[in-house]
Amino acid sequence: xxxxxxTDDNDDGNTNTNDEENIxxxxxxxxxxxxxxxxxxxxxxxxxxxNHLGHECYYSQSTPGSSLARxxxxxxxxxxxTRGWLLPSRRSLSWLxxxxxxxxxxxxxxxxxxxxxxxxxxxxxxxxxxxxxxxNGDDDGNNGVWNAHINGGLLRTFPQKQYRRSDDYDDKxxxxxxxxxxxxxxxxxxxxxxxxxxxxxxxxxxYCSDDNDDGDGERRMMSTTTMTMTTHPVFxxxxxxxxxxxxxxxxxxxxxxxxxxxTPISDDDGDEGTRIEYITVPWSIDAVEGxxxxxxxxxxxxxxxxxxxxxxxxSSSSSSSLFLHLEYAQQFHLLEDRDAWMRRGEGPPAxxxxxxxxPVRGTLVVFDSVTLPHEVTxxxxxxxxxxxxxxxxxxxxxxGMTNDGMVSCRTL
Length: 412
What we know:
With 412 residues, the chain is an alpha+beta fold. The protein has helices spanning 19-42, 83-86, 148-151, 292-306, 326-331, 338-344, and strands at 56-62, 68-71, 89-98, 112-116, 123-127, 155-157, 182-183, 186-195, 205-210, 220-223, 229-243, 250-262, 273-278, 332-334, 355-357, 364-368, 374-376, 384-394.
């Protein structure tokens, strides 16, 4: 786990590994294991507790002029080609422990107020020029606190505005929405500005099913009259049972869907549950040429352009369309849309906000590997360093998962 950590060499070339250093490294290892176990329980990611998965750890060091372009740490298995389903595990959570050191004492230049975000478990630092100077030096050789303006090297993240908890949002903001990242083993591939409330008396229609049904895969039609709008994560199920019209046999197809929480209207309505709404027709992976993400992006753009000829974007698409409704195609955005990133320049992706995190020594940052675009701004002064890595989860098995978390009997 710690084979990549830097070590000091003696004059004779032998590595200096004294007992004190070994005890320190072992202590860090134990704490990281405990962090992984705790997060697996809090976030309901049970396979992350498996000690035999390929959990990663490395030592990162950046000097002035270094930066890291915007990117994602993990992607859906289907977007990786065949190899995506052959890997035993995937990245689940990205983590960093900052060890940055400044070149000089920046205490007189910086006035930083730290705030801990309960949801993302990150420490953000905001500069307040109106506060008094204070001494943030330490005794271990780091003679100053890393300053955003002087040292640079910020971790810049782009969370979706409606999926970040802050003083501007309360628990009601999360009602009706599903957790992002993964659902029933299916990884998220994008976002859509979808319908929150429904009017069962009219409107367009789409397929939906209960997430806690009897597992027979039955789907029913539902109305799609818009009442309010909110952002929803879009998940890709690569093992959807599609009945071949010629053979009558169920075959695995791909399909995109969103998830709604069902909140009881009264105490007699039963427990809360979830409802799956499919936003595309099923399609065979054999019909896709090239990368799956590029295919989805191309289809969304193609069908969005055709929607300009329609006065009703909520109407059903033509028989040759991938998306069930033109509105779905219009509002679909890939998690990793590099073309849009280039068009926007330094601006945030659609629907997201910018959150900068200062790499202050001793700060722990943890975020979802699948959903959060991020980059590192250029280091100006000092040595930006971190112990970093990824906690892994098991790769979804071939055939997918059933609603109760069991491996499906679907075959290739």
